[in-house]
Fold this protein.
Amino acid sequence: MNFLLWIERSWLGQFIASDTYAAPALLCFHAVGMGIVVGAIWMYNFRILGFSRRMSFTAFTNLKRVAWIGFFLNLASGVLLFTASASRLIVNLNFQLKMLFMVLGGLTVWWLARVVAQGSEREEPASFPMGVKAIAVVSALFWCAVIFTGRYIAYTLGPPNF
Amino acid sequence: MHSIYQFLGESWLSRQAQAIPDLFAISESLHFVGLSLLLGSLLVVDLRVLGVIRGVSYASVMVFIWLAVVGFAINVATGAIFIATEPSLYETNPAFQWKLALIAVAGVNAGWFMLREHKALADLPDDAPAPLSAKWSAGLSLSVWVLVILCGRLLPTFADVGGG
């Protein structure tokens, strides 16, 4: 906790917390990055569920790179926003759940990508087994939960510690 | 003459918004869901036209445009809830006026794309590049929608400007 307070009281943390435009600008990056990451993952989920079956998974090799750019955009803007209220965020239930859902969402996408990669050895499967489709639904819901818990941080963040 | 802001502010929707404490926050979250559906779908379509996504036909990626339509519909509905809840936050807000203007530009561009570019693209084989005019339209689409997101995200920052 001392370390988190030190981050908050650092020049960077103070600047982001107090400047009129720093936090809004970072939130702008965070919103665009969210749309890229979650949007790309949802398209992947929909494709596995049978949406546009004629489209080969080749399409996602380049979209994956774009999605990673979005992810790092949000990692950077997220870490910077974190410095402004580190000690309050770490104890915030919605923040904790958001981190958990991100890990779970990431794991499901990683698992799905493995299944898809195995399929490409032969012909692409006309349809995925129900178990795989179920994971695609769960994956989409995890990323939905990331959005909801993320938005609710704004409503549940405690007062500053100084 | 009643404005749309007055109309929504005095509507049934507005009374629901006052009565249900979490409606605004839930709508905000759903607005982000709609945003992600819209942007994700446009990434697939526009990046194929731009040539960033390769090896798949335009016709096969175009199926994803329906998810952009769903996302946009979610955001019009949740957007109406925002205005109904707090009309003064939007009526004089320059960020909101820019946002509406940019959505209009995106709409005209989408109309142009569907009427003028879509037909030629639909017959393209898997790896064939799109015509330059279609690429400009796809690039404009992604740029304008990103600006729409930025204006939306900056709404609270500019809420008191011009409001007096």
